[in-house]
Design brief:
Blueprint (H helix, E strand, L loop, with lengths): L1 H28 L5 H32 L2 H33 L3 H19 L1
Helix pairs in contact: 1-2, 1-3, 2-3
Length: 124
């Protein structure tokens, strides 16, 4: 009974995630809005997507625990295939946000190095 309940809940979360992914695709492609507004929307979508992925992973884990050994492989394949697109978009969002806010890892490392050098020179 718990297995069916979790599968039903996962089905609803997947539907909502699919709707969110469509919103993300539209928002990502928009060129008729200011960059600040676009970044804010994409940040919000990124948070929502992270929450949906977390919830899906939790449900998948519960379902896998209650699934028979014979059906386990199919269950894992199905859940992983669904998550692939969401994970792809999560990465895209993060890269876009980082590129347009100056927070990419390379830029942060460079800033850290420059600050370290600056502090070192001030000590002398």
């Amino acid at each position: 009974m718990e297995l069916e309940k979790n599968k039903k809940k996962r089905s609803v979360i997947r539907q909502l995630t699919t709707k969110l992914l469509k919103k993300i695709e539209v928002g990502y492609s928009k060129t008729d809005i200011a960059m600040d507004e676009k970044l804010e929307n994409l940040r919000d979508f990124n948070v929502q997507l992270a929450e949906k992925l977390s919830e899906l992973k939790h449900l998948d884990s519960q379902i896998e625990t209650d699934t028979s050994v014979d059906e386990l492989e199919d269950e894992i394949i199905q859940s992983q295939e669904y998550q692939e697109k969401a994970i792809l978009w999560k990465g895209r969002l993060q890269r876009f946000i980082n590129q347009h806010t100056g927070n990419s890892a390379a830029q942060l490392r460079l800033k850290t190095k420059l600050l370290t050098i600056e502090l070192f020179l001030k000590r002398k």
